[in-house]
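hey so u asked for the seq, here:
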Amino acid sequence: MENAETAAPQDIFTASQTSKAWPFEEARKLVKRFPGGKRDADGNLVPVLFETGYGPSGLPHIGTFQEVLRTTLVRRAYETLTGGHPTRLVAFSDDMDGLRKVPDNVPNKQVLAEKLGHPLTRIPDPFGTHESFAHHNNAMLCDFLDRFGFEYEFVSASDRYNSGAFDEALKNVLRKYDAILDIMLPTLREERRRTYSPVLPISEKNGEVLQVPVEVVDAEAGLVRFEDQGEMVVQSILGGKSKLQWKVDWAMRWCALGVDYEMCGKDLTDSVTQSARITQVLGGKRPEGLIYELFLDENGEKISKSKGNGLTIEQWLEYGSEESLGFYLFREPKSAKSLHAGIIPRAVDEYWQFREKLPSQPIEQQLGNPVWHLLRANGDQGGAGDTLPVTYGLLLNLVGVLGAQATRAQVWSYLGNYVENADPAAHPALDTLVTSALAYNRDFVAPTLKRRKPERNEAAALAALDAELAATDDSATAEDLQTLVYEIGKDPHYGIGALRDWFKALYETLLGSSQGPRMGSFIALYGIEGTRRLIAEALNGVELPADD
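ran it, structure tokens below
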């Protein structure tokens, strides 16, 4: 079987046709939708359009990242399945929305409070750096996506509404006004039904997006009648003088832009259903898409930005890596995921395990390897087979022993026991994780570490381990040291019981944790003398049993 270094494009194409990896399964929906590729009226091949949505009433977050990443994975899978058919990805900003409440994480809140209900692009920027609050957040979105190398086209709702690009689609909403009401009204509470309108006119008196009943006067001219501050007015909804209700807006956008694929969270399931029906009424076809499960905190509760019970992308990148975040988001998108700091170390190590094995896998297995997809997400097909000389878990154990005040230089001095050419410049990925491990240890590990005193039989076994280490040459390999530890644990003389009890005792007495690394690897990393010092500390004040 061919591997990543030798597989020809034709072999990848062939293997992709039967791959069960979820991006390929999603992409097949589009292959079925466009059997010969997406074509224009003249039969020319045109790009399949993928879309992601962003609400700029707040700053970009981990949910924004995961939606763009996952959509990109499906996009690349589609390109592979079709042998390179063209695609586009639009990052759409719903910046015509009226501001409903003032976010907590902005300065100059009064600037926003005075403009509640106004479109986000017509509200001053409280940061004082951009034309409006939405322009500020849109710039952050683009910087955010550029930071991770995503290939996308930014589209602003305000630009489309204000320029008239949506005018024909808005007229079509007026033409189908009653049919849209028939879809939406049964889904609303009685009180909401009395004021609901698919179209939200923007008041020419005070600039607010109005939630008022609307009567269609002339669909072809885009004219509606509604009450504004006690006066009945007739006003155009074209050229930025209105916006649509969320579900109607979504459907209109699908039709106007020709969106073929868009995924969303489980909380929007009903919205998808209703927007799909409205799309059909408007003469379009709903996009294909994936409904993914939501994130949960460490207590199993739904993550809420207002509660602050989640994990920000900045926090993940402080304690882990971008690749590990992508790896975690790749897996099982239809299953709810915990999102808290405790999951980061395992995600880092699993990413590198999958990355290391990629070149040796048959091409069929490669296409099921998350790293294969992640490396192609932004056009980078290199890096397969790279290894991390020390696992993140082992690195955390080392830093944990060194203590909360450990420095990067100290960690690298110990890495010299284990890593060939232990120079940060030679191992940039490892160096990044050294910094991450120091932060993770400071915030999560050091405050919880508590080494217990060994029981008498455990103390005897530790003393025996110390004696063996004293007689062991510094050139001993991690495997040699692991065998040494293993043999002591098997010795019935110490009455340890199962080997797992012996290793647990080592973790709890030497490292201050109930779980840990392969001890041979840890001893090789920390050094024989350093490990003997840990044993001496553990045995200090403990009475050893007399020899038989």
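Residues 62-81 form the longest helix (20 residues). The chain has five domains: 9-165+246-296, 182-240, 313-375, 392-448, 456-539.
lmk if thats what u needed
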